């Protein structure tokens, strides 16, 4: 069993364009074991993507305090590629397009990056593995010969993130809004892919706005993030409750002074009542 | 100088070139200064005594310095009457042909000091002639190896003539043997006569200590077509002057150039297509990658002469810089003298996209491999235009090799 631990994580954003420096994460604590599925929910702009990008090692986010560890080994000094090889995978909210590199050669490079020079995966083995995973995800083989994410629809990009996940087989996967922009069928297909990964050696952290995803991928823990902290942790029922009640109730119940992006709307609604 | 026993006309033309060389100015290339390279010097070195290496290659034609090592055409090429000869032989066996075309039609010897110098100091040459109506299927492979076991400068000339309605594919590969510093001075004239089609591939792999002046010039008659695929992968200083003159109506030149600069190297690639004739088409696509503290200048010149009604001229020059010390330029120049034409250009000088690097590395791919992938992606849309998969793979292998060296530092 492996552990991914986030300890008292504080993260600052340095935005050179606006000469803006802001603390986004204000002390996040989280432990995920392989074999577990966690979900994080929370209002827009509270730092969920910041948390995932920081765990992965995006250089735009600066850690000012705290630590991120896999099995007790700190990752914070490692560049992104070493973290990936240590077992992390991030399905990004906005996957990048790269013209001129096929999906196929990209995935082979990713797999072979984890192997010794004298132990590279053969093309035959690779294609067999690819075919199995394409079938799970209802993806056509032609997608793999196209340039990486180039011209992919929003939903195709998300599927392609899961395809990479299935090919790479990390220890821990962070899925940032893997359900956004997916139609109902695609949502089930993507969930099928994630569920196919389930094993005692694989842990998941899902970020989502919708309880619906959690009907397909059952979480062991649901965390609520607000204003740069995890403010509440519960089981799958917590997501159901949030879906029904929204975040304002929870915020007030916990006495948090965060402003929600849609406060004005909520208040306007309240006036109407 | 190994060219002896020459016809009268040649002696006269050479003398005229020598005279012109004394007064003509050096050519100039936008945004690139190379006067210190002293390309207009003949290193006076005692007679060359180095033995010809025996392991150069088994291409159809192999040359080493001023010697033609062998010419071996396939039975099919011979049966079709394809002529490939060392210039020394051609001056006797096909004097009329050489007299008609050598620096009279595509490149004129009195254009500038370097063209004049080439003829005046010529020490080696090749004639390639494809008779009218002959379609050569196999690629004619020509390997030209610079002899850098000595410091002797090379002044060479390749004259390619595709006669009416013929077609031919030529691969000209340039390499260096040895590491002495010298100049490699080569003019390749490519004449595509009426309705002929030439696929000309250049693979330039000269050594770091070889300073190169590479002039490749196409001359296109009515309805002729030349597809150029030029990979400039030299490790030394390079002037590459790649021009096409669309003299015949309906002629078409497609120029695809991929270049890599690394180390402290400086390279200028000056690619021009001139539409002289109505309904002629010239397209230029150039991609360059600059590493280390090197320099690469891409000039793309599209010129449409008055009277070239319905001409088309398009170009795209893009440069990718991988280091802060690199210097790059992508410089489109459109000179248009006619109204009913279609002309366009695009140019960019950019750096590696950090988002792309992050995405690739987030899948565990190391930085050098990610950079290589991004570079490959950048070169991709020109590489896909190469005439054969084999050639594409060959170019990719050369690029990967050069990148591996450069990115390891
Ligand atoms: N690269 C960046 N530059 C500037 N500001 C940023 C950057 N990344 C995040 N932020 C800011 O940090 C805050 C948290 O953003 P983050 O993307 O982590 O939120 P989120 O919880 O994922 O929101 P959503 O649910 O909308 O995806 C936001 O105010 C956002 O504008
Ligand atoms: Mg987000």
TrEMBL record, chain A:
Keyword ATP-binding in record: yes
Single GO MF annotation: ATP hydrolysis activity
UniProt keyword annotations, A-Z: ATP-binding, Nucleotide-binding
SMART domains: AAA (SM00382)
Record InterPro entries: AAA+_ATPase, ABC_transporter-like_ATP-bd, ABC_transporter-like_CS, FeS-cluster_ATPase_SufC, P-loop_NTPase
Keyword Nucleotide-binding appears in the UniProt entry: yes
Pfam families: ABC_tran (PF00005)
SUPFAM superfamilies, per the entry: P-loop containing nucleoside triphosphate hydrolases
ABC transporter domain ranges (all copies): 4-252
The organism's place on the tree of life at top rank: Bacteria
Family, similarity comment: Belongs to the ABC transporter superfamily. Ycf16 family.
Protein name, UniProt field: SufC protein
UniProtKB/TrEMBL annotation, chain B:
SUF system FeS cluster assembly SufBD core domain boundaries: 152-378
InterPro entries: Fe-S_cluster_assembly_SufBD (IPR055346), SUF_FeS_clus_asmbl_SufBD_core (IPR000825), SUF_FeS_clus_asmbl_SufBD_sf (IPR037284), SUF_FeS_clus_asmbl_SufD (IPR011542), SufBD_N (IPR045595)
Regions crossing the membrane: none
SUF system FeS cluster assembly SufBD N-terminal domain span: 58-142
GO BP terms in the entry: iron-sulfur cluster assembly
Protein family: Belongs to the iron-sulfur cluster assembly SufBD family.
Cross-referenced PANTHER family: FES CLUSTER ASSEMBLY PROTEIN SUF, UPF0051 PROTEIN ABCI8, CHLOROPLASTIC-RELATED
Protein name: SufD protein
Organism of this sequence: Lactiplantibacillus fabifermentans DSM 21115
């Amino acid at each position: 069993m492996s552990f991914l631990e986030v300890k008292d994580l504080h993260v600052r954003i340095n935005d050179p364009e606006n000469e803006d420096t802001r603390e986004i994460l204000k002390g996040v604590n989280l432990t995920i074991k392989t074999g577990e599925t966690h979900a994080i929910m929370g209002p827009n702009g509270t730092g969920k993507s910041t948390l995932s990008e920081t765990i992965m090692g995006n250089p735009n986010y600066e850690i000012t305090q705290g630590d991120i560890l896999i099995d007790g080994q700190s990752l914070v000094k490692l560049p992104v590629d070493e973290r990936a090889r240590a077992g992390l995978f991030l399905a990004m909210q906005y996957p990048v397009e790269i013209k001129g590199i096929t999906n196929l050669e990209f995935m082979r490079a990713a797999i072979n990056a984890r192997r010794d020079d004298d132990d590279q995966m053969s093309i035959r083995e690779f294609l067999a593995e690819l075919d199995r995973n394409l079938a799970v995800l209802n993806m056509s083989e032609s997608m793999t010969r196209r340039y990486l994410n180039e011209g992919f629809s929003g939903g195709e990009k998300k599927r392609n993130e899961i395809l990479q996940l299935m090919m790479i087989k990390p220890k821990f996967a962070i899925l940032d809004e893997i359900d956004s922009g997916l139609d109902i069928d695609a949502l089930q297909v993507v969930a099928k892919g994630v569920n196919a990964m389930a094993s005692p050696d694989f842990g998941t952290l899902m970020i989502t706005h919708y309880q619906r995803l959690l009907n397909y991928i059952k979480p062991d823990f649901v965390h609520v993030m607000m204003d740069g902290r995890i403010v509440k942790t519960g089981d799958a029922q917590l997501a159901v409750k949030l879906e029904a009640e929204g975040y304002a109730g929870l915020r007030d119940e916990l006495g948090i002074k965060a402003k929600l992006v849609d406060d004005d709307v909520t208040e306007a609604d309240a006036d109407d009542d | 100088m190994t060219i002896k026993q020459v016809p009268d006309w040649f002696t006269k033309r050479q003398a005229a070139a020598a005279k012109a060389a004394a007064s003509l100015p050096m050519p100039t290339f936008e945004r690139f200064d190379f006067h210190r390279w002293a390309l207009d010097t003949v290193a006076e070195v005692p007679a060359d005594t180095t033995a010809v290496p025996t392991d150069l290659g088994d291409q159809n034609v192999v040359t080493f310095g001023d010697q033609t090592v062998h010419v071996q055409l396939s039975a099919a090429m011979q049966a079709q009457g394809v002529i490939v000869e060392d210039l020394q032989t051609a001056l006797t066996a096909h004097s009329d042909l050489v007299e008609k075309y050598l620096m009279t039609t595509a490149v004129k010897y009195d254009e500038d000091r370097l063209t004049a110098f080439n003829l005046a100091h010529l020490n080696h040459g090749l004639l390639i002639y494809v008779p009218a109506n002959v379609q050569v299927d196999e690629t004619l492979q020509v390997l030209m190896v610079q002899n850098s076991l000595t410091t002797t400068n090379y002044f060479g000339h390749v004259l390619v003539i595709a006669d009416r309605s013929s077609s031919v594919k030529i691969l000209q590969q340039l390499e260096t043997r040895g590491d002495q510093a010298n100049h490699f001075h080569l003019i390749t004239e490519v004449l595509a006569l009426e309705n002929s089609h030439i696929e000309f591939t250049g693979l330039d792999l000269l050594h770091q200590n070889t300073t190169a002046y590479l002039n490749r010039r196409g001359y296109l008659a009515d309805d002729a077509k030349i597809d150029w695929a030029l990979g400039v992968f030299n490790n030394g200083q390079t002037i590459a002057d790649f021009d096409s003159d669309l003299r015949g109506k309906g002629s078409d030149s497609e120029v695809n150039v991929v270049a890599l600069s690394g180390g402290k190297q400086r390279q200028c690639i000056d690619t021009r297509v001139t539409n002289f004739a109505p309904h002629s088409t010239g397209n230029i696509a150039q991609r360059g990658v600059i590493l280390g503290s090197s320099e690469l200048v891409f000039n793309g010149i599209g010129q449409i002469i008055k009277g070239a009604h319905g001409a088309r001229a398009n170009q795209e020059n893009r440069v990718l810089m991988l280091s802060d010390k690199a210097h790059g330029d992508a410089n489109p120049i459109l000179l248009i003298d006619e109204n009913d034409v279609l002309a366009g250009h695009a140019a960019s000088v950019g750096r590696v996209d950090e988002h792309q690097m992050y995405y690739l590395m987030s899948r565990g791919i190391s930085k050098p491999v990610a950079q290589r992938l991004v570079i490959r992606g950048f070169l991709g849309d020109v590489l896909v235009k190469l005439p054969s998969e084999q050639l594409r793979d060959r170019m990719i292998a050369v690029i990967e090799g050069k990148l591996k060296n450069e990115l390891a530092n």
